[in-house]
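thought: fold this chain, then report.
action: predict
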Amino acid sequence: MSTHHVDQDVFRSVLHEDIDWQPFPGFPPAARLAVMVGKPPEPEPYVVRVKLPAGERLMPHRHHEDRVYTVISGVFYIGRGDEFDENELEAYPPGAVVVLPGGTSHFHWAKSGEYVTQVTAIGPISLDYVDSRNDPRKT
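observation:
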């Protein structure tokens, strides 16, 4: 798949079977990220998709950038706070849109099976764990 870049004057589409899922250093090893539009490390708009397999968790973390999550498939469980607390999780079905302001501590859990979310934001992409011991980049 060829990623579309901002200000690129071409019509482009991305079909499900053409999505290029890759590991992402800040995620647990089983999680995947696909760049759909833009260059996430740059200060420009981007669209990525995140796939988290059943049972996986993303421990409390923050992003510098404001984010808009659209649930593509599965149920997206997200909670807010500096501690992972199952009681704080909210479940969002496919089609739901979640707006997350930058700097908001939150966590995810693929509690009922794999989910895919699409994230729209303005880069650079960021991911800072509340507790650095949860950061896969530090192990």
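thought: worth noting. The beta strands are 32-37, 45-52, 57-62, 67-73, 76-80, 90-92, 97-100, 106-109, 115-122, 128-129.
final: tokens above.
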